Amino acid sequence: MIPLFLDLSASRVLVFGAGSVGIRKARHFTSAARMTIVAEDLSPEVFSFKNASIKQQAIEDMESEDLEKLIDRHDIVIAALSDEKENERLCSLAKAAGKLYNNATGEGNIRIPSVVCGAEYQIAVTTEKSAPAVPAFIRSFLEENLPWLDNMVLLQNTLREELKTTIPDQARRAEILRAVIDDAEIQNACIAGVPSTEICKKYL
Ligand SMILES: C[C@@]1(CC(=O)O)c2cc3[nH]c(cc4nc(cc5[nH]c(cc(n2)[C@H]1CCC(=O)O)[C@@](C)(CC(=O)O)[C@@H]5CCC(=O)O)C(CC(=O)O)=C4CCC(=O)O)c(CCC(=O)O)c3CC(=O)O
Ligand SMILES: NC(=O)C1=CN([C@@H]2O[C@H](COP(=O)(O)OP(=O)(O)OC[C@H]3O[C@@H](n4cnc5c(N)ncnc54)[C@H](O)[C@@H]3O)[C@@H](O)[C@H]2O)C=CC1
User: Fold this and answer.
1) How many angstroms separate the alpha carbon of residue 11 from the centre of ligand 2?
2) What is the rounded CA–CA span in Å between residue 91 and residue 110?
3) Ligand 2 centre from 19 Cα, in Å?
4) Is the CB of 24 under 6 A from ligand 1?
């Protein structure tokens, strides 16, 4: 699998299961796409999702024709039931319908990664199934160790525009931008929330 960042604003996501795993998968999509969540037992958080329609239902009580129609109306299918057999059945239906699908207990053609998310950047991490605790660890590690990253992105954005007008040599501009990222004093100014325009004036 390879990473991609997608605009899902016109897409529909169907999540089966509303236990801790289903909720975590749904949280990933919550402000990005419209969602339908289907489960017999619902964690309360399910009602806090924006743009989500909730169906409280046992899958085995649904007519297969209705299930197929439901899947057909969606672009991405997530199977996060505690029932492995049902997850497999849902994923075969999604696969046959040509959908993107993820099975929390098995095979899928997409994976939901751990995401380190700032206002100005996103980093997605996966181990391709082998060790799911590792992406979660990397997320916490980066959140703790790069508190300056968001403001650094803003600073770089301001600075690179300014450098384009003052330094014609691209290699030299790249050198300066890289040195700014490595500079501990500038990293601290970013943590302190000094606006990027001020840091530009003060340090450069
Ligand atoms: C294959 C995959 C299927 C899929 O695509 O969903 C899968 C499968 C399974 N995970 C299990 C357990 C755990 N999962 C986590 C955490 C996360 N798991 C996620 C993804 C994936 N998990 C896919 C692989 C992705 C990859 O490798 O990169 C993350 C990244 C994203 C998300 O799910 O939202 C999210 C981190 C979110 C974050 O915090 O950033 C933790 C850690 C924790 O809880 O702290 C544990 C306990 C430790 C452990 O058991 O390893 C079990 C039960 C095993 C059992 O029964 O013992 C199965 C089922 C099985 O293995 O059969
Ligand atoms: N991908 C991942 O990151 C992880 C996956 N898992 C796997 O994911 C599965 C789900 O884990 P949890 O959310 O913790 O379980 P859970 O028991 O808290 O929630 C299960 C959900 O599935 C629903 N459900 C089960 N059978 C159903 C049916 N026939 N019809 C309708 N709804 C049904 C329940 O109502 C509930 O909403 C587990 O089987 C586990 O093996 C577990 C940990 C992490």
Assistant:
1) 24
2) 11
3) 5
4) yes
Q: Which of 10-14, 117-121, 122-126 has the lowest mean pLDDT?
A: 117-121
Give the closest residue to 100 by CA, choosing from 26, 9, 37, 11: 11
Give the tens place of pLDDT for each residue, 142-196: 999 999 999 999 999 999 999 999 999 999 999 999 999 999 999 999 999 998 8
- Judge if pTM exceeds 0.90: yes
Residue type, 22: G
Instruction: Tell me the ipTM for this assembly.
Output: 0.93
Q: What separation in Å is there between the alpha carbon of 126 and the centre of ligand 1?
A: 10
Is residue 65 within 8 A of residue 44, CB to CB? The reply is no
The tally of domains found in the chain comes to 2
**99 C-alpha to ligand 1 centroid (Å):** 22
Ligand 1 pocket member 104 (CB < 6 A):
yes
Residue 184 belongs to a domain: yes
120 in any annotated domain: no
Per-residue pLDDT tens digits for 3-14: 999 999 999 999
- Pocket of ligand 2 from Cβ distances under 6 Å: 17-22, 39-41, 58-60, 80-83, 86, 104-105, 132
For residue 189, what is the DSSP state?
A: H
